[in-house]
Design brief:
Blueprint (H helix, E strand, L loop, with lengths): L2 E4 L17 H8 L4 E4 L1 H4 L11 E3 L2 H8 L3 E4 L6 E5 L5 H18 L7 E2 L6 E5 L5 E5 L2 H15 L3 E7 L5 H8 L8 H15 L3 E6 L23 H9 L3 E4 L15 E5 L6 H6 L5 E5 L18 E3 L2 H13 L17
Parallel strand pairs: 1-2, 1-12, 2-3, 5-6, 5-9, 9-10, 12-13, 13-14
Antiparallel strand pairs: 4-11, 7-8
Helix pairs in contact: 4-8, 5-7
Length: about 350
């Protein structure tokens, strides 16, 4: 099976995929030219909007890194039992909104959820912005997060964990830039910290939805950020993604139907964001790496600066064509109007 991986790193201001699920059109198009498309929550999460397809794998970022390194394989599932972990710092009314969203996913879409757990202390999320412009964050009480996840796994039988943490309300300047489609997602980096902790500790799928105060209407809202304005919660897309997220299995325990790192034929990444662990791992093997110039970010780490051999394309449309050629065994030069003659070695 032809397998592609789409990576758009979190919280680095990607022009495409750096907002509210605005990478989903890319996912939908790419999934049509491969048998399997593996991507991560940052690309697929769009608050109350989502896109589900059997050939799209929803894989948390740390899990994707370990998969790329060959440490873990991915085991497809029919449906996971998702445990819901709520931050004790969420106000009662906002907590109720999230519980109603979870019940709506059960009642209207038939998702399997366990009982929910409230953390034994507020998680205390703190947002940070690096000098590069990328967002990150910290937790005051990471132990409370892990204790809550452990209860869901051991007492409720959860096979995946959805976390809702109370996030600080963003500064007006950051929020305005993001809502206009020109800023960095200030909460994305902290969200990655939360899911990474759970995946690293328990080795099961996890993703995060922030709890935030409702925002006043914005007349000049960018379509790329509009999905986050539709309701009181970002939880539905996380529950949908986790419900079918593949399970992580140690590489030595993989079965024939499981997906392993060498099975990946091609990886697509923004041109300046090649310094991540997954790209560095795949660059050591036969996997074709494609970089997309139009998807600029706050990062300045191109493939050439790392000695990585990559095919550079201008847009995701061109990347789709490159994948179709790669899958067919056609060299990209053969699609150009002129081909230079062979030279003597």
């Amino acid at each position: 099976m032809y397998t592609a991986v789409l990576i758009i790193p979190t919280g680095i201001g990607a022009r495409i995929g750096g907002y509210a699920g605005d990478g989903i059109p890319v996912v939908r198009a790419l999934s049509g030219v491969c048998d399997r498309l593996i991507t991560h929550p940052n690309v697929l999460n769009a608050a109350q909007l989502y896109w589900s397809d059997p050939n799209i794998f929803y894989v948390e970022g740390l899990g994707l890194d370990r998969f790329a390194a060959g440490t873990w394989g991915l085991r497809p599932v029919v449906q996971n039992r998702v445990g819901l972990l709520l931050d004790a710092g969420i106000e009662p009314e906002l907590r109720l909104r999230h519980l109603q969203a979870a019940d709506a996913m059960r009642g209207s879409l038939g998702l399997g959820l366990t009982e929910y757990v409230v953390t034994d202390a507020p998680l205390g999320v703190q947002l940070r912005l690096a000098e590069s412009g990328a967002s990150w964050g910290t937790l005051d009480n990471p132990g409370s997060l892990l204790r809550g996840a452990k209860r869901l796994i051991e007492e409720a039988g959860a096979e995946a964990i959805a976390v809702v943490a109370r996030f600080p309300d963003e500064s007006p300047e950051q929020l305005q830039a993001y809502r206009s489609g020109s800023g960095v997602d200030a909460i994305a980096g902290a969200e990655a910290v939360i899911s990474h902790l759970i995946v690293r500790e328990f080795g099961i799928p996890a993703a995060h939805a922030p709890a935030l105060s409702p925002l006043p209407p914005e007349a000049n809202l960018s379509p790329r950020a509009a999905a986050e304005e539709l309701g009181y919660t970002f939880l539905p897309c996380v529950l949908m993604g986790l419900s079918r997220a593949p399970q992580f299995v140690p590489a030595g325990d993989c079965r024939p139907q499981d997906v392993r790192s060498p099975d990946v034929d091609v990886v697509i990444v923004p041109e300046g964001a090649c310094g991540g662990s997954a790209i560095l791992s795949w660059s050591q093997g036969a996997t074709q790496i494609i970089t997309v110039a139009e998807n600029s970010t706050q990062m300045r780490c191109p493939a050439a600066s790392l000695g990585i051999e990559a095919l550079s394309v201008r847009s995701y449309l061109e990347a789709i064509g490159a994948i179709a050629a790669h899958r067919s065994g056609v060299h990209p030069q053969a699609l150009q109007p002129q081909i230079a003659p062979l030279t003597h070695l």
